[in-house]
Design a protein that fits this description.
The chain is an alpha/beta fold. The chain is built from twelve helices and nine strands. Strands 4-3-2-5-6-9-7 form a seven-stranded mixed sheet. It has a two-stranded antiparallel ribbon with strand order 1-8.
Length: 287
């Protein structure tokens, strides 16, 4: 068997098992073992920790994780990959592959069933590009006992996750992530190190989840509603976007009360600004 995470590894696994790569599942297999090692290194996982993996594919990253972690719980939607994974992971016993769609899985129940003895759980994965954002927002919304996420994803999404105010990448997702975790881009990954090669470059992002948000908002649900509304039409002012959700005069009075310009746009505001807006709405909307 060729070395894991190489062109030979992918070609051997595919050919030996007569496997057909499926575009509908966003299957792009990494062929650079050094990148695999850097992904696991960034996670800082040890034998005392458990790891959740999404889309193990041929098992290249899973093998490295099994070597470093106490246990690996992986979700693979493609049943045709299960015998390949079993073959490629035959040297290990510290893993469980679930043939499930991660967007439909009861992850909390699975954690209780398979990872109960581990105090620290990380998520490490090469995410399918076509559902990266739904996976990420879905997992973080559930407030699962996952303390760190290290994920390969489309570069464009990684830039948005790590976006800063007054930049083109800064948007609702940037703020949504900032409220829940400390985000850091670990490395850029060229499209040329995958089989088949995707149409875009990738990046590895690490998220360290806050036990308690450093900036507290009384009504989290309202906060995310306000943020989504503020970025509804990027070229419009904050006043115009929020006036689609609230009374225009109320919005004007609010912005002036908070010391914000009526001409400001959403991308100019910080998370702290949005929390102040949300708290103002919460306290004054029905008055």
């Amino acid at each position: 068997m060729p070395k894991i995470g190489t062109v030979g590894y992918v070609e051997h696994s595919v050919k030996q098992n007569h496997f057909q790569i499926k575009k509908r599942f966003g299957q792009n297999f990494l062929t650079d073992s050094h990148i695999l090692e850097k992904i696991v290194e960034a996670s800082e996982v040890t034998k005392k920790d458990a790891v959740i993996e999404i889309g193990p594919g041929l098992g290249a990253l899973t093998e490295v994780l099994c070597e470093q972690a106490g246990f690996v719980l992986a979700y693979e939607i493609d049943k045709d990959l299960l015998p390949i994974l079993e073959q490629n992971l035959k040297a290990f016993s510290n893993y469980k592959i679930l043939n499930q769609d991660i967007l439909k899985a009861n992850i909390l129940s699975d954690i209780s069933l398979y990872l109960e003895k581990y105090n620290t759980i990380y998520l490490v994965a090469n995410l399918p590009y076509y559902i990266t954002t739904p996976i990420l927002t879905g997992l973080l919304s559930q407030k699962l006992p996952i303390s760190r996420y290290v994920m390969m994803m489309q570069l464009e999404v990684a830039d948005r996750i790590c976006g800063k105010p007054s930049t083109k990448d800064y948007n609702a997702l940037s703020l949504w992530i900032e409220y829940r975790a400390l985000a850091k881009k670990i490395m850029k990954v060229p499209r040329t190190v995958f089989i088949p090669s995707p149409n875009v470059d990738s990046a590895v992002v690490r998220l360290d989840v806050y036990k308690d948000p450093p900036m507290y908002c009384e009504n989290e649900r309202a906060l995310f509603f306000v943020i989504q509304g503020a970025f509804a039409q990027r070229r419009k002012t904050l006043e115009n976007n929020l006036s689609l959700k609230y009374d225009k005069k109320f919005v004007q009075n609010m912005l002036l009360s908070l010391g914000l310009s009526l001409k400001c746009r959403a991308e100019e505001l910080t998370l702290s600004d949005f929390i102040k807006i949300t708290d103002y709405i919460t306290h004054n909307m029905d008055k």
